[in-house]
């Protein structure tokens, strides 16, 4: 009858029974009360150790961080904040924790400090909440697509193609790094590599996903992706997870509708299943924001923001409209933007955040971007200038989704690839989907950590992935 602490604390069913609980000591008070946590919930179970139960030597070993196994009776609690507690009949210390050396004390630590001891930070309330929510989001993602009949397709991590054509790839090679075999012109001879050609870690599973959609109609991928962009921001990782649905017989409108209902579904799931963790993070955020000047604080609390997203449609505007709004904005007139605003130039995060935080105050889907700032596979619109792209921008973050209707017309796609110097011979496998039974199709990619940021209200992407990979940061 080993029980998780969450089970103990929710519902009265166990009151009166004998249980075994195991976990780590958060705090030991008055030589009698242990706050024990096993990671199943932010709440600790209070374990009451009668003064005559343990000898002094054992009692001294009950320190913050120590692990233990407790046997006892579940009894109603007189203390406030909890319905039940465990009256211990036996306590066994499984692993000692030197109180002098243990970095986590029963007090609030800064996120910066916790990032430095990332190997222990799971044991804090904040990271406990964040990673339980991350787990729930992942589960809800599979649930959403499974219920809709999408096939979960595993696309390769090692690939020879650059899906985004952005060149920000980690090279995978089995050649010696100090003295690789060379071609006559001095370039590295990848023919002698294990794979016989130059390969890299995937930046996106989309192109392979399209192959799946052309057979299963609706697929999704959900896996790690890699970008060697050497940017130190609070929203970029070198290794991040992405969810990429790809659907045959969908146009841009269908794509937007799916993305919106998808995001709503997973937020709803977390609100229903992780309410206590969200409440904790809501309080945490409110406290953090108290330190900020009035005009930097969010207008809504975390739970309020999530409820708002569940109950309100996203705004939908074209790129051209977005640029017009920016050009007419007080921020532009007062020269508050660092980067240029001009039709044809990609929006920077400051522009995206202006649109969602100041102008619309809700998530926004921006469509029909200029073709020259988007990838080769996006479908050319009739104007010949824009493509059927869609980005979803979220308050506090900026871009969370990038997607498009795909160019299904072979001649148009080949023309675009040629303009962008993408070698068609190497992409013959991709072009085959347009040669044999091509159909209108669309898809998008949701950055998993970006949505975890949004749902948890955390502000640094390093704090929503268990082991962050960022420039100069790969300790373990
Ligand atoms: O906009 P991106 O580059 O689009 C694609 O990769 C498409 N192939 C997706 C598709 O249509 N199937 O990336 C998609 C999303 C971004 O909107 C962002 O949320 C996230 O992936 N993302 C990152 N997240 C964390 N760190 C990074 N370095 C990221 N780069 C992109
Ligand atoms: Mg993008």
Automatic annotation (TrEMBL):
Family indicated by similarity: Belongs to the class-II aminoacyl-tRNA synthetase family.
NCBIfam families the record matches: asnS, PRK03932.1
Primary location recorded for the protein, binned into one broad class: cytoplasm
Classification via SUPFAM superfamilies: Class II aaRS and biotin synthetases (SSF55681), Nucleic acid-binding proteins (SSF50249)
Matches recorded under CDD domains: AsxRS_core, EcAsnRS_like_N
Keywords per UniProt: Aminoacyl-tRNA synthetase, ATP-binding, Cytoplasm, Ligase, Nucleotide-binding, Protein biosynthesis
GO MF annotation, one: ATP binding
EC number of this enzyme: 6.1.1.22
Domain of life where this protein originates: Bacteria
Domain spans labelled Aminoacyl-transfer RNA synthetases class-II family profile: 131-466
Gene Ontology biological-process entries: asparaginyl-tRNA aminoacylation
Subunit structure, as described in the record: Homodimer.
Catalytic activity line of the entry: tRNA(Asn) + L-asparagine + ATP = L-asparaginyl-tRNA(Asn) + AMP + diphosphate + H(+)
Protein name as annotated: Asparagine--tRNA ligase
A GO cellular component entry from the record: cytoplasm
Location relative to the cell: Cytoplasm
InterPro entries linked: Aa-tRNA-synt_II (IPR004364), aa-tRNA-synth_II (IPR006195), aa-tRNA-synth_II/BPL/LPL (IPR045864), Asn-tRNA-ligase (IPR004522), Asp/Asn-tRNA-synth_IIb (IPR002312), NA-bd_OB-fold (IPR012340), NA-bd_OB_tRNA (IPR004365)
